């Protein structure tokens, strides 16, 4: 295995593209090093992106936030303006692992590892976040929801690196929230995770919404029917019931020791309602 | 093989070493530098026995490559006491008998010190969440939490 830590993303992309063997990007390493140690992967080349200055910052841009792919989740939680604008995205990122893991783990690593239960991804999907990707053919933008292809598999092409994730500007009266169910109170893998983002008009009617669902299918889902169920409502009981039904209907989960299929399907609906209520309140709705 | 030369700072001392690309920071500390304070409990990021700080931030040294340390400030449990004088976190762990086999202790010392530098007046809940990534299989957590709360109070009144 070779280790490289280039200073620009173009150099990093070239290194990855030229490698004929197995190549991996190293961000926080909290997934990659575990996989290395377990012998699950044996890369010929590891490219550390943490020496690339442009990937190590959180920048406000046109009222939105660009989060460099090397930024740790702990740093997101320390960024007051980001927390105020996107509390749900940040709470998903901050649920990842322990204090030790938080200091290294990145949201982009969480996304590119393509785990179905990745905690920061449903919030990003609900937010309609966009990733900027740099590869041998240049730069492109791709919706976060389109990056995972299946468990451990992404739609990124050889040599492509996510440079940053962009959270667009939201209108006034917007809010978001992420909730997960785990059997313990800390340090566990989500059985279900739900991110909800929404925007209200002046009288509290929902005008826009996004719902991301984790751990209930091979990839994190963008549940448009769930978003539609609450758009136009003031999140009354009927809208909440429709939301829950749509979230449950979207599930295609597995049975495992953490939760049965029936349980996951049911909890997806329950958590969607709860997350929507929190997001609604944060948006200023009553 | 392809040894990588790394220049870093450990507990304030300038240190140079050569390591293999696949070696973790924990391997480097223990096997190359003879600093065996950090322990290998799991090597998967779950137990926290290998805790160090990197530029002041708490990290599992088993989840970091030795090659990544260049130019950073590494802090280990060996740097916590000043000569023979124990840090209050260390002294309170002894006073409260908050250790048995001691394998988790270096990680808890490093983690608790990092907490108190960031938050000198944590609630018990905050201490418990902060230390959720430090597993102890013998002592039970109550004594550890009490020791950390007590150390916090001593540091505040000092
Ligand atoms: C003890 C422990 C607890 C954990 N708890 C949780 C949890 O509660 N919830 C959760 O969701 N996860 C959890 N994780 C998993 C892990 O911490 C997260 O998935 C984390 O966000 C990964 O980020 P990273 O920067 O460390 O990624 P890395 O390990 O550096 O990378 C992960 C993958 O993404 C690729 N990659 C990274 N950056 C890029 C990029 N910029 N462009 C292209 N590809 C890239 C890598 O090549 C690799 O395949 C836990 C891990 C540990 C060790
Ligand atoms: S050895 Fe690093 S966390 Fe257990
Ligand atoms: S004292 Fe033995 S693991 Fe904590």
From TrEMBL, chain A:
Protein name (database record): Carbon-monoxide dehydrogenase medium subunit
GO molecular function, one term: oxidoreductase activity
Any matching Pfam family: FAD_binding_5
Domain FAD-binding PCMH-type: 1-172
Alphabetized InterPro entries for the sequence: CO_DH_flav_C, CO_DH_flav_C_dom_sf, Diverse_Substr_Oxidored, FAD-bd_PCMH, FAD-bd_PCMH-like_sf, FAD-bd_PCMH_sub1, FAD-bd_PCMH_sub2, Mopterin_DH_FAD-bd
Origin: domain of life: Bacteria
Flavoprotein listed as a keyword: yes
Species the sequence originates in: Aestuariispira insulae
Keyword Acetylation: no
Keywords: FAD, Flavoprotein, Oxidoreductase
UniProtKB/TrEMBL annotation, chain B:
Cited SUPFAM superfamilies: 2Fe-2S ferredoxin-like, CO dehydrogenase ISP C-domain like
GO molecular function, one term: metal ion binding
Signal peptide start and end residues: none
Family matches, as PROSITE patterns: 2FE2S_FER_1 (PS00197), 2FE2S_FER_2 (PS51085)
Transmembrane segments: none
InterPro entries (alphabetical): 2Fe-2S-bd, 2Fe-2S-bd_dom_sf, 2Fe-2S_ferredoxin-like_sf, 2Fe-2S_ferredoxin-type, 2Fe2S_fd_BS, Beta-grasp_dom_sf, Diverse_Oxidoreductases
Domain of life of the source: Bacteria
Keywords: 2Fe-2S, Iron, Iron-sulfur, Metal-binding, Oxidoreductase
Name by which UniProt lists this protein: Carbon-monoxide dehydrogenase small subunit
